[in-house]
Amino acid sequence: MKNYKYQLDKSSRKFICPNCSKKTFVKYVDNETNQYIDDIHGRCDREQKCKYFHKPSGNSTYTYNYVDVKPIKPSYITLNHQNNSLSNYEINPLANYLFTKFDENDVRNILSKYKVGTSKWSNGSTVYWQTDSSGNIRSGKVIPYDLKTGKRRKKSDGKSLINWVHNLLKIENYNLEQCLFGLHLLNNETKRVGIVESEKTAVVLSLSLPQITWMATGSLLGFKEELLKPLKNNDIVAFPDNGGYDNWKQQASKLNNEGYQIVVSDILENNQYHSGIDLADLILETKNKSRKER
Question: Please, which residues have CB within 8 angstroms of residue 244's CB and are 6 or more apart in sequence?
Fold first, then answer.
């Protein structure tokens, strides 16, 4: 196996991207010194919006930023903050949208099962709590939705409008180490796990196909061993969004060689689907058509 002089940092730390100025930048680490090499070599996690990826050369000379990159413990949110959010669905646009598509009691049960909360931020938003298999609350991703379409609301420039609970609480020096959305549902009785990108998709599929335990990575690049490790002994079926199949298939092949049992579906890799479409979009579009035909 080839030994590389540099590798992307495997910790959860993120820095300001030199291209898009978002705190989504993963730096390269020198494997000899275990230090970050500089501020320009690395990869932006905004793989579709930014695409910045600058690899270092093994023969280059660098001025090192001597930053300790030893693993640090993840931070957690208290249970009270989570519990306080599990209500006020009357101001939660996504919850109200789902009430129009599915049985309201079924929706409420799924929201309770997945610990989906409500935030007042941005005139009412959905909180997707990330709770690990030990019950620790890593944080909550806060996303506003449009009441009529059930789609994410965006900024005026078209960029994503997303926040985090620890940011809204203004907790300083918070070390966010993400886990799969829905991971808290994992137990000894769990057999097959379905993996999707979007948290909303996991919720919708739980309403439509409850025989599978659905979890979400939160992004295309979230399909990686750091997040999937708790599922190593489970049968995993993965459904990437349209355009993400090759990435997930490649990752699954590597993990299967290490003992994982992952099958990646290409059901969305079809020319009739627009880039980025996911299973939730198909299910909701089908429901909309059936209502119109009545």
Answer: 197, 220
Query: How much is the pLDDT for 289?
Result: 61
- The 8 Å CB, 24+ separation contacts for 275-279 are 275/242, 275/243, 276/48, 276/241, 276/242, 276/243, 277/241, 277/242, 278/196, 278/197, 278/198, 278/201, 278/239, 278/241, 278/242, 279/196, 279/201, 279/204, 279/205, 279/239
Identity of the residue numbered 114: Y
At residue 1, the pLDDT reads: 42
What is the model's pLDDT at position 250?
95
Closest CA to 174 of 8, 9, 14: 14
Mean pLDDT value of segment 244-261 = 95
Find, among 82, 208, 231, the residue nearest to 216 by Cα: 231
Q: What percent of the chain has pLDDT over 70?
A: 89
In the block, tokens 């997040």 appear at 227
CA torsion 73-78-201-8 (nearest 10°) is -10
Q: How far apart are CA 286 and CA 3, in angstroms?
A: 50
> Residues 43, 25: contact at Cβ < 8 Å?
yes
Longest dimension (CA), the chain: 69
Q: Which two tokens stand for residue 111?
A: 């929201």
CA atoms within 13 A on the CB side of 92: 22
Sheet containing 163-164: order of strands: 116-119, 125-131, 137-143, 163-164
Rg (CA), the chain: 20
Place of tokens 């979007």: 198
Confidence of residue 6 (pLDDT cuts 50, 70, 90): confident
* pLDDT for residue 144 is more than 90: yes
Length of the chain as a residue count: 294
